[in-house]
Design brief:
five-stranded antiparallel β-sheet; 283 residues; 7 helices; three-stranded antiparallel β-sheet
Length: 283
């Protein structure tokens, strides 16, 4: 049988060579690219001018919005406390930023950067979510500070008791409330704890009731003792004469029949309360 002979024709690799561009070709390509950029810029120039005018117009609108919000909040806010001032400034800044951001987004859309606008909005949402989780305590204190300022449960100089501390309000900001105790210590309480926990404002009403407990012997005339005690407390100098002195017998003690006598006094500070209480005890 005849043997098969291998193909004598060998396949050689075909090498393709790239001819280098000449200097004139490079210059021509660069000129064409620059010409395209210039042409695109010229075509986009009216939109750029319009976008710039829109931004400038929204800057003016943002300033007007901030001034309007500040004026309205100052009229609505009846108290000029530190927190109210901070909140008014904050709301004015938020109004300014919101109007200005709207103008910038409209300008970006006008020059064809819609994708950039979408990216910015998405990025802002993700960033806000991340910051919310990372700084949730700070955010809680901030929101509580805003709510405290809006509701105004106390003002600077008010005597309050909250979170186990009693003293006068020395400072209010959007993060914490400062309480100065009678011993002179400055207690800084986060706004979230002030807002979520019970708070007693002794200054709000302008008057305060003093309750004095006492007792008389079992052999004494109870009606006579009641008349004497009521007459004595009626002569307290700072007593609110619009409210009568009250006395109620409360219990049979080991060696006395006990009662509680109450009277109201005008209140401006803790010193007034203690002085009226001391005078009642002496009388």
């Amino acid at each position: 049988m005849p043997q098969a002979t291998p193909d004598s024709t060998s396949t050689s690799d075909v090498l393709t060579t790239v001819e280098p561009l000449s200097v004139s070709d490079l210059v021509g390509t660069l000129v064409d690219k620059l010409a395209g950029w210039v042409e695109g810029f010229v075509l986009l120039l009216p939109n750029l001018v319009a976008a710039l005018l829109i931004v400038l117009a929204f800057v003016l609108l943002a300033r007007s919005a901030r001034a309007l919000v500040t004026t309205l909040m100052n009229k609505i806010s009846g108290r000029a406390s530190g927190a109210s001032t901070s909140v008014v400034s904050l709301l004015g800044t938020l109004a300014y930023s919101a109007v200005l951001a709207a103008g910038i987004f409209i300008a970006l859309g006008l020059i064809g950067l819609d994708r950039a606008v979408t990216t910015l909005l998405a990025g802002a949402g993700v960033l806000g979510l991340a910051l919310g989780f990372a700084f949730q305590d700070i955010a809680a204190n901030f929101i509580a500070g805003v709510l405290i300022a809006v509701r105004s449960p106390f003002d600077l100089g008010d005597l309050v008791e909250t979170n186990g501390h009693m003293g006068t309000i020395s400072d209010i900001n959007l993060r914490a409330t400062h309480v100065r105790t009678f011993q002179g210590q400055e207690v800084i309480i986060p706004n979230s704890q002030v807002y979520q926990n019970p708070l007693v404002n002794y200054t709000e009403i302008g008057s305060r009731r003093i309750d004095l407990g006492c007792g008389v012997g079992y052999g004494d005339d109870l009606q006579h003792a009641e008349d004497v005690a009521t007459a004595a407390l009626s002569d307290v100098s700072s007593r609110d004469t619009a409210r009568d002195v009250t006395l109620f017998w409360t219990e049979f003690g080991d060696s006395s029949v006990n009662f509680v006598a109450s009277y109201w006094v005008t209140f401006q500070g803790q010193a007034d309360f203690l002085a009226a209480q001391s005078e009642g005890i002496k009388r």
